[in-house]
Amino acid sequence: MNLPRLLLLCCILFTAPVYAVVETYDFSDPALEQRYLDLSQELRCPKCQNQTIADSNAPIAADLRKQLYLQLEAGASDDEIRQYMVDRYGEFVRYRPRFGGMTTMLWLAPGVLLVMAALVAWLSLRRRPGAAARDTGLSDEERQRLKALLGDGDRKE
Amino acid sequence: MPARLKLFLPLIIFAVLAVFLVKGLYLDPQELPSALIDRPLPAFTLPALDSDRTLDKAAVTGKVALFNVWATWCITCRYEHPFLTQLSQRGVLIYGINYKDDDAAADKWLQDLGNPYKAVIADRDGSLGLDLGVYGAPETYLVDADGVVRYRQVGVVDEKVWDDVLGPLYHQLGGEGGQ
To answer: Could you tell me which chain B residue has the CA closest to the CA of A90?
Structure first.
């Protein structure tokens, strides 16, 4: 391999870190790192409309990740960290909002809708008994013809 | 006749949905309610931008004031700056929070463009900003005489924002000037 090629190869090899937007932290304990990953997936970037702080490369998301790291290393519990974020940025920062108050409807709506859908389905299905098993309305002769036609289609392939 | 009424059910559902969706068109998704409204300004001890003294909460509270979060990297802040200058000339008390910025650049900005601030808190690493729930610049907080946050404006404070929202609140809380 000639020198220019080698140089080019080296350049390409060393550009990878440039593309890494998310900084890395050294955790004293792998368990902390796992909690960091979980929490950063659960906290929402206040600047962006729909990204977690793990996803976003907005400056504020980087600040919050740093804060998350510092607090985890300082021994804060998950709930303490969530509360810290909510105290500053409101319930908006939580992708898994707490139950109660404003969010009651949010939590209950899927269940309520499911029950309603089941009820509607049951009511409308009940009114036509044996709907699924109902006769197709074809006579024996027609059925034979259908079979022949379908069989015909198969043979051509 | 319930059977005939049932025919209108899709239309009714559509109408209800349409009302919500149309309303949604006019909501600003960037507008986040501040978690700090009606809560005290967070405590802090940070250097002042222009001198060696340090500023803390006690030094900047006691009167109704605006706290303007700004930075030289923030282009919208430059757009907002002339109106802040105008407000300060009209006697409105404004403190600056220089957010995650370079001191020298900030000094130069104030020298070049004028200084509308009574004092500027140098929040170099954004710690006060974090406690305030700042997620970008500019943001402006209205703090009353007891040091309680009353309102937050995300984005530019201009003539319209001042006349419609910020000004009336400022005067209602007993703020001086701004006429």
So the answer is: B35
